[in-house]
TrEMBL record:
Protein name per the record: Trans-2,3-enoyl-CoA reductase-like
Gene Ontology molecular function, alphabetical: oxidoreductase activity
Keyword Nuclease: no
Parts of the chain that traverse the membrane: 141-161, 216-235
Tree of life domain: Eukaryota
Every TECR-like N-terminal domain range: 60-136
Native source organism of the sequence: Formicarius rufipectus
Membrane-related topology note: Multi-pass membrane protein
Length: 243
């Protein structure tokens, strides 16, 4: 006779479960280890995308108004914060070619001082829109040209009187009269004075601002050239006698 198997008791079932769990644990561990290794290998092959750097650059808009009428002349847009007044003048010259940068005078307030070319535009900004007033400074010349013209004139003019041109003095009188040594000494001192000024202009002096109105050069030339002509005429005159 076959003996009927007894139904498993709770203790027996718990032992079977424990044994089954013990058998399944190594299988689960190996599967998880395999998955982890595959993840590591796949992660090593993927190149991380570089982080995007979003640099926020605030641009300014410079509104340029006429100082007299307060009418808008133009708007210079997309001005970087590191720009200077000189950069704004160059952009303004592109919009209005008749006014080159050295001729443009910009003011923060009406009847205020002219802004220097080296001033940073960001230091003037209260908001993203900057209002500047424009003044036409007139035709400009460089400071080097200004002084070279001012000092070369007296040097040449005095020499023209010193050689006693026939168009200035009577040629007959010029040949008769003997020149006193002081006349030669005066010519030497005068030429030495202006040659020194010319050399200083070329090799010594440095000018902070590059230009000045043309009318200033005309005023300086009228004074220097006129005064030189006046004293040279009498010192080099055939009838001149020293005191």
């Amino acid at each position: 006779m076959h003996q009927r198997q007894k139904p498993s008791t709770p203790e027996h079932r718990s032992d079977l479960a424990a044994n089954g769990a013990a058998l399944s644990m190594p299988h689960n561990d190996s599967r998880s280890l395999l998955n982890f290794s595959q993840f590591v290998l796949s992660a090593g092959q993927i190149k991380p995308s570089p982080a995007l750097k979003h640099s926020k650059i605030t641009y300014f808009e410079v509104e340029i108004l006429d100082m007299q009428s307060k009418k808008q002349i133009c708007i210079v847009d997309k001005v970087p914060p590191a720009s200077t007044i000189l950069d704004v003048k160059h952009k303004f010259h592109k919009a209005c070619p008749q006014w080159y940068p050295s001729r443009v005078g910009l003011q923060l307030e009406r009847n205020g001082p002219f802004l220097k070319d080296s001033i940073n535009i960001q230091s003037l900004a209260v908001s993203s829109i900057i209002t500047l007033y424009f003044t036409d400074l007139g035709q400009q010349v460089g400071w080097t040209t200004f002084f070279l013209t001012e000092y070369t004139g007296p040097l040449l003019i005095y020499l023209l009187f010193y050689i006693r041109l026939s168009t200035i003095y009577d040629q007959v009188e010029s040949r008769k009269n003997f020149r006193h040594p002081v006349v030669h000494l005066a010519c030497f001192c005068h030429c030495l004075h202006y040659i020194r000024h010319l050399l200083e202009t070329l090799f010594v002096h440095k000018f902070s601002e590059g230009h000045t109105p043309l009318k200033n050069m005309i005023k300086g030339c009228v004074f220097y050239w006129g005064f030189t002509s006046w004293i040279a005429y009498y010192i080099n005159h055939p009838w001149y006698t020293p005191p």
